[in-house]
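Quick one, T. Sequence first:
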Amino acid sequence: MAEIGTYLKKHTEALVKDVGIEAACQITGKSKATLGRYYSDNAEHTDRFMPVDAVAKLEQEASYPHVTSALADLKNITLSYDTKNASNGDASVTRSGGVNADVIALSQRFAFLMSEYQTAIEDGIITVNEAKRLLRETVMLQHVLLDMKLHLEEESA
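Structure tokens:
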């Protein structure tokens, strides 16, 4: 259970930082200290997690559903976005390009990830900051893969 808690806390932190701490406070009605406790790895806060309604409110404003994605990962579930969720039902508002652009973006993101990994592993130890950079690149790679999946679904329909 401790590993799951740590995993969820890291994604909760990513969600809050995606939205911005000040905006997250306004959206949820929680203080900075309270939000910080939800993703703190201090022993005294191991059993504190962000309420589901607060997660839902933040994910409406975030660029990516960090906590929902983490929960899906824990159950080996694959998520897909509703392409009609963009304003005016126009999917092109949030995604542009096509499969070719996605392949290029995918190779670039993967190169960034491998570069970060090479830098991180040089001394044989991956520090917390290096792990955060690797996680950030991995999430960006996920975004590109999701866009590619949606483009492929559009082309096959």
